[in-house]
Amino acid sequence: MDALASIARDSALFLDAVRAARPDARVPACPEWGAADLTYHLAEVQDFWSAVVGPAEGRGLDGDDVRTLPRPDDDGALPTLAAEATARLLAALAGRDPAEPCWSWHDAGRTVGWVARRQAHEALVHRVDAEQTAGRDVSSADPEVAADGVDEILRVLVDGIPEWATFTPDGSTVAVAVDGPGETPRSWELAFGRLTGTGPESGTAYDLDSAQLVDLPGSTTTQVSGAAWDLDLWLWGRGERDGLVVHGDAALADRLRAVAGQETQ
């Protein structure tokens, strides 16, 4: 997967769509946002990660040291702000060694390659938001990129237990499988349970429905399968389950979507 090409393509489609959206249009997946809020969000995210990656000849910033991108008073300036943020992100990532270290909120993500992958999927998902906000049909995605998006949401956003938390499985399992026409088959198995614990910094007590990746080949009783793009859109809450096939308990498929929804915006 060419992450930089994906960022460039989907950021351009994003800008084209937000420019076409009505000023009062709401974002279907995030109804508290309007088109202007969506535009500022992607600009802020891309600006943040360009500062984290930093210039090729120097060290990037830790997340806590990155200044927040100022939002212009005039919403009409937001598309230009977003285009400039995309250019900075692509310039920061271009020609870099994917293994080069940098800051990340994710324990396994402290490399430039991780940032490039994460930002490719960030641009992809919000491009979908922009198209839906503008009332357009959603543009297709490369099946390889979409399949990687399924892997990312399950492996990076859903899976993982903080050091201060405990995961207690409840015996329910589900599999997700890419099996679209002409696509390379891939699958993931997850166990459901409760994630409990108290955040050491906030003092907040958590008791959440959760799912963790497990190695249970062939033992899951419920499977959600379909084309990679349909799975990616569904897991992100940008598409319905209509185009997918569920073998087994459909309630477990809905449960997985709800768990994923806790980690996505």
Write the layout of secondary structure elements.
Blueprint: H1 3-20, E1 26-27, E2 30-34, H2 35-53, H3 78-93, H4 112-133, H5 143-158, E3 165-178, E4 186-198, E5 205-214, E6 223-226, H6 228-235, E7 245-247, H7 250-261
Parallel strand pairs: 3-6
Antiparallel strand pairs: 1-2, 3-4, 4-5, 6-7
Shape: globular
CATH architecture verdict of the largest domain: Up-down Bundle
- Find the structural class using helix and strand composition: alpha+beta
CATH topology of the largest domain: Four Helix Bundle (Hemerythrin (Met), subunit A)
Figure out the total of helices: 7
| Number of domain units | 2
Explain what you see.
The protein has 265 residues and is an alpha+beta fold. It has helices at residues 3-20, 35-53, 78-93, 112-133, 143-158, 228-235, 250-261, and strands at residues 26-27, 30-34, 165-178, 186-198, 205-214, 223-226, 245-247. The chain has 2 domains: 3-133, Four Helix Bundle (Hemerythrin (Met), subunit A) (Up-down Bundle), CATH 1.20.120; 145-261, Nonspecific Lipid-transfer Protein, Chain A. It has 7 helices and 7 strands. The strands form 2 sheets. The protein has a 5-stranded mixed sheet. Strand 4 and strand 5 (205-214) form a beta hairpin. The radius of gyration is 19 Å and the shape is globular. The model has no long low-confidence stretch (mean pLDDT 93). It comes from Oerskovia enterophila. One of its GO terms (molecular function) is metal ion binding. It holds the Pfam family MDMPI_C.
